[in-house]
Design a protein that fits this description.
Blueprint (H helix, E strand, L loop, with lengths): L1 H20 L4 H12 L4 H13 L6 H13 L3 H8 L7 H14 L2 H14 L8 H11 L3 H14 L5 H13 L3 H9 L6 H13 L3 H10 L5 H13 L3 H10 L5 H13 L3 H13 L6 H14 L2 H13 L7 H13 L3 H9 L6 H13 L3 H13 L6 H14 L2 H14 L6 H13 L3 H9 L7 H14 L2 H14 L4 H13 L3 H13 L12
This protein binds one DNA strand through helix 4, helix 6, helix 8, helix 10 and helix 12.
Amino acid sequence: MSVLLRSFSTAAATAVAVSTFSSPSSSSALSVAALLISCRSLRSLEQIHARIIRKGLEQHPVIATRFLSFCAAFSAPAYASSAFDRLSAPNLIVWNALLAAHARHSPLPTTVALFNLLRRRCSLPPDAFTFPSLLSSCSHSVALSLGSSVHATILRCGLEADVFVRTALIDFYGKCRELRAARSLFDEMPKRNVVTWNAMIDGYVKSGDLVTARQIFDKMPERNAVSYTSLIDGYAKAGDLASARVLFEQLPERDVFSWSAMISGYAQNGQPGAALKIFLEMYNQNIKPDEFVVVGLMSACSQLGSLTLAKWVDLYVTRSSIDLSKAHVLAASIDMNSKCGNMERAASLFESMPNKDLISYCSLMQGYSLHGAGDKAMGLFRQMLEEGLMPDSITFTVVLAACSRAGLVEEGRQCFDLMTNEHLIVPSPDHYACMVDLLGRAGRLTEAYELIRSMPVEPHAGAWGALLGACRIHGDISLGETIARKLFEIEPTNAGNYVLLSNIYAVADRWADVSELRTLMRGKGIRKVPGFTWI
DNA sequence: ATAGGGTTAG
């Protein structure tokens, strides 16, 4: 009965609207309106648009509104504007639909300009449908002062009590970390819905107050997937995967957002195995992944370094409907293939990029470096400079590490000079560690020692460790002892340093020293880490 | 016709 009534009233509303603009035929308007509802892509929207024009229905307010909201759905704000500009007398509803299309997909200034145009051109003042879009645009840009002036306008229009407007305001203040403003608006609200509560949770999560976010979550009368996922995401970002997991297990209906929150949460916290397990659970439930899930999966796979897995993931993504040309998916894929040793694939993905960026260059260079092709890494570095890209501090870390692994002493030195003299980058402890490693491996132990002692910043254990490793390779006992003594001070419990010195003694047949060192270790309660060998 | 959730990578 209610369905019948509703469809009747929709038809009636259409008829009224049609009569106000004198349509050629109300039945064609109805059929086009029905066609619009079933529209599934931008291409089919374009076809329907042609039909709208052909049938003379372009000025029909209901058709125009529906058309504009489909432009919003397919992220086509420019298309919405071009159609809107041909309307002779758009009413407030049509204006609101245009504003919504832009609020979701255009930069804030464009949306604000449109709002000002609406105020000047539309015969009616903005209503409760106007402000939520405008505010959401302010929220996404975290434009506190602009949004506050919108709030003032809302008060002048007497619209602050509207649930949609008020929820949008709460969301806005929450996103701007103005939790006190959000809270006063929230506490004095007579009727809230689940979106209102979720806006508060999101605000507290974003400002890092997980305790209050949890209190809101526990207090709310009904929850949906968004309530859970916001909190899961907050816990995951704070590294509390245990709490995230408990909520995830409690969530009755998981959507792709909740799955990706867990997968990327584990991946980002260095638990690639757990990330993979969650993904497999999702996969076995035949849930379609999206690009966020896939990026998390690839990140986990990079950390595991398994070529077999990387090949499977690659094939899986190729067969899915995920757009591999999207920048972050591509970056994750290049990184995964590089780290897992599929350099051909990494290189071909890299070549497919129209605009190669610093990060993709670095991913590929690191891959070559890791797999013993330092010369290829250096070739890429030269190509990068020729392309006019500006290397940053991390780029040089990758490049210097590549030189060090490949024993390219001269190139490494040149790069260090290039970094400091031309790019004016202050060398970090990491850069020094690379240089010490580079010189040390090449047997220039004295030079390396001089470098480490002349560092203007405090060298970290990695630099000393690299030098101690070099002393072992080149059998320098006296320097080795000096460096080891330094390292025992900096990191007294790292067994690796004791093992290295012990190996130096062993190679020189100084077994008494080996034995003494072992006693020293036992005395300090240090146990050797599996994987290190005593000769 | 309107408000809510997610990867800054090397």
